[in-house]
Amino acid sequence: MPEATATRVLLRDGSAVAIRQIEPEDKPLLKEQFERMSDESRRRRYLTPATELTPEDLVYLTEVDHRRHEAVVALDDAGHCVGVARYVRVPGEREVAELAAEVVDDWQGRGVATALLADLSERAQANGIGQFRAYVSSENTVVLDALGRAGADRTGREADELEFIVDVPREGLGDRLGGALRAAAAGQLRLAARMARRLGLLRGS
Question: Given this model, what pLDDT does residue 173 score?
Fold first, then answer.
């Protein structure tokens, strides 16, 4: 398999990252990135402050088909992974995918998530995906407020979660849509979580 082509992106603080599709060989990079995340960041993304990713977890997270399940990584100048964004297409809904992104704590607030989501959105469009779906805890007021300000459509509620739909941008994120995508990506990737649970990613939850 040919090596994925990376695109260098300048962030708003003047630093730069290289963004490319995830590859099976990225397992060590993803493991290192996970270990750099704080317990709170792990809990928000994985529902539990797990201390490691198993080999099975890493297979699920890196060996994607780039159509139904796509993931892109952001690498710093030293080649370390500082962020990941992914979507998983919803079965039976060809044009809808669930969305998630994570950035290591010391790179948060610098524009990494925005750059990742812009790249991921282009790939989603190319794969016929027109909408991203997000599930957000009803207690996560910060994310809910951001989604509301960005004009995301609330489409349902299940137990303690709210469901939102955000259109995949066709030409750039823009401030409003970019804010909605960043907020949506901060929610839980329910479909991926269900699949990952079978592999032990959410052990103890």
Answer: 56
